[in-house]
Amino acid sequence: AQKVTQAQTEISVVEKEDVTLDCVYETRDTTYYLFWYKQPPSGELVFLIRRNSFDEQNEISGRYSWNFQKSTSSFNFTITASQVVDSAVYFCALSEAVLNDYKLSFGAGTTVTVRA
Amino acid sequence: DAGVIQSPRHEVTEMGQEVTLRCKPISGHDYLFWYRQTMMRGLELLIYFNNNVPIDDSGMPEDRFSAKMPNASFSTLKIQPSEPRDSAVYFCASSLKLAGTDTQYFGPGTRLTVL
Question: How far is A111 from chain B (nearest CA, A)?
Fold first, then answer.
């Protein structure tokens, strides 16, 4: 079963538009961790944010913001005033305990294209 | 500080050849992970090490794949013999602690093409 669902396969916006990426996760654990990574066209995976299940405060970092809602098992990511450099594939990931071990499960990714 | 270093960045080989991918984790990190990324299957964990010891290799696709970590600063992923379906981007990542409690930092990846 898919543990992390990123329903949006591709999103295309014009520069300066806001874009929100959805992430829905599934876990039975009370302690878990959520991550967002960015993969630009150059291919590397860049860490953006880590959030544990006990911290539901939303976070803002520059033009990036994250909305964590345990009630709906969602951890959405918004890019405000998008720029061409934001064009990338964005992955949401869940880390949960599996047989006393933690493993990271990635969503399928959302490709964001920002047009000038 | 240097991030995770992987080599080579690109590898093109012919079916049946042995391929060795290399990784140097971030200094001081206790955990090292190998992932494979394909269009069909996305990002998959192959194997991970803790303090140079393999902990979980359940993601290794078959016996043709092997991974070693002879010391804290070096790991290899070997495919022998390679097949066209092994074509993918292979990422190495490291973390200070296990994924659940710490962030994994990824290397730039090795793009493998098996002809």
Answer: 13
Q: Are A12 and A113 in contact (CB under 8 A)?
A: yes
- What percent helix, strand, coil does chain A show, rounded to 5? 5, 55, 40
Number of H helices, E strands in chain A: 0, 12
Of B45, B107, B109, Cβ closest to residue A103: B45
Phi/psi for B64 (5° steps) reads -70, -20
SS3 label, residue A71: helix
Inter-chain Cβ pairs, chain A and chain B, closer than 8 A: 50
Q: How far apart are the first and last CA of chain A?
A: 38
What is the pLDDT tens value at each position of chain B, 115 positions in all?
Answer: 689 999 999 999 999 999 999 999 999 999 999 999 999 999 999 999 999 999 889 999 889 999 999 999 999 999 999 999 999 999 999 998 775 668 899 999 999 999 9
> B64: number of CA atoms within 13 Å, CB side?
14
| Cβ separation A102–B105 shorter than 8 A | no
Here the tokens at position A40 are 């630009």
Query: Contact at 8 Å (CB) between B27 and B5?
Result: no
Name which of A27, A32, A36, A28 is nearest A2 in CA terms: A27
Query: How far is A102 from chain B, CA to nearest CA, in Å?
Result: 5
Query: On the CB side of A112, how many CA atoms lie within 13 Å of its CA?
Result: 29
